[in-house]
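Chapter summary example.
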Amino acid sequence: MLICPICGEELSPHKKSLLCVNKHCFDFAKQGYINLLPVQQKKSLHPGDSREMLLARRNFLSKGFYSKILDTVTVLIEKYSKNPQSYLDIGCGEGYYTAGICDKIPFKCAIGTDIAKEAVKMCCSRTKDIEWVVATASHLPVKDNSIDVITAIFSLVVPGEYYKKLNKGGIIVEVSAGNNHLIELKREIYDNVFEQNKKQGDVSEFFTTLYQGKIEFSLSLQGDDLKNLLTMTPHINRINIESKNRLYSLIHLDLTVDCNVRVLVKN
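The structure predicted for these 267 residues follows.
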């Protein structure tokens, strides 16, 4: 299923590596993942989420706070993809959604990709039955016309690239933050919170929308759970210490989870 990120040729197993016909060689890490993100595709030395963010996300998600998102995505895959064999989760993070979906749907081949090497390392501790790959969403090292299901859960959608990788009739399940997602958290950590009008991107050139809806529910968090939620979001890099301390001093906080979800099929 994997191709060379440099020349695009098929990769084949060779000892503890993957090798293409042009002799580009990629070694498996001791944890079991493969790094298919060449230097020329990086925009920084350590792209993606930090280890601190990933640990916070793992701790938060392991308590089931976002299980409704996982369950909804799984149901949509089962409804809109008939007997899917191959699955690609893009921006898999530490692997919560990838592994959870694969626990419920018996794919023959499953791949999780993330641009953060630290994230993919963490994925390996979940299961070795999924191919964990360091890669960027804009240059997926996966064969064209080979994937039945793609998920993009709080991650970037690159329409043209995803279109190439999907089989005819293949689907994407996309989840993104809605206008009121964690609005109460924003009000605690920012002096001014502006009204938003978030819309999922226009992909009609490549895909037809089969389903469009919302995932909405409430959470009540306190203590370490509240800290983990802040730390796993991009807000942790945008706020000052006073805002952090103000949030950490709260006994509890009631929160709105507001997500947009849609299912797209390849035209």
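To summarize the output: The first helix runs from residue 51 to 61.
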